[in-house]
Amino acid sequence: MKPYRVPQLAKKYVEYDMIQQHTEMPAFPDNRTRLLFVFLNRNAQGLHASEDELYALVTSLVQMGLDTHDMIDTLSGIRSPEEMRSRQLKVLAGDYFSSRFYQLLALAGRIEAISKLSDAVCEVNAGKMSLYWEMKNFRLDGAQYLSQMVRFKQELFLSFTSLIAEQDQEVWKQLLNEFSLCDTLMEEWEKRAEPDKSRFGYMFWHIYGNGDQHEQLQLSEGGAKTEVWRKLVLKYKAEDAILDKLRTAVTHIRQVLSDEQNTGIEEFECMLEPFLKLLHSSHPVVREG
């Protein structure tokens, strides 16, 4: 197995001083990228030289582009010059990351791969429009929201399933789904302490789906002030729900990795470390009062 160096290759495309100084960027999708690289590499006989690395790199860049655009605020109102610069840089950076995958694949003559990723981008964008409509009309619960977010994280990477060895495809899809779920839950956990960020995330929809009519009305009308929000988080154990789902996903991954039929993929165990650290050290930060 050749070394995994996609994050190092991606640096020259995603690390620019102006972007890093003036706006926040999404995290590199390392888990999913590593999974794709390893499973493509296991089918080396079915690929041309360095295709495993190329496909993993361009997929990570497209994902970065989509994730960057998702960070653009859509709120109306007057913004400061710094906020305007940050917003404009997110737009430009997202477009730049996305355009790079066309260039790299075109230079390598991999036109079919361009089509695969382009189709996946269309699927993700169509799915997001549908999700936003459901959110606007309050037709979601926590499970539905989480399912869609996980789908968006893995759609691009699933484009290359046909290039993975047939005997590996089932375990590939299982691991991709579970790691995508872990990444999503980690993001939801990290924004839990910021009401403005979390109120249309998993915790919001978990509470909305379990709440009574009065509580749902408070949430839908934006009337859940900070104190009310904290009480709802405690009442419906929203933080615990995130941790419970993360714990279950980690268990599923370990079960897959321990299967005797899946020898040679034990290296993925190290990818669980951030999630295990969270599970071992976490405790709810929301308190009444």
TrEMBL record:
Domain of life of the source: Bacteria
InterPro entries recorded: HEPPP_synth_su1
Database matches in Pfam families: HEPPP_synt_1 (PF07307)
Protein name per the record: Heptaprenyl diphosphate synthase
Organism: Paenibacillus ottowii
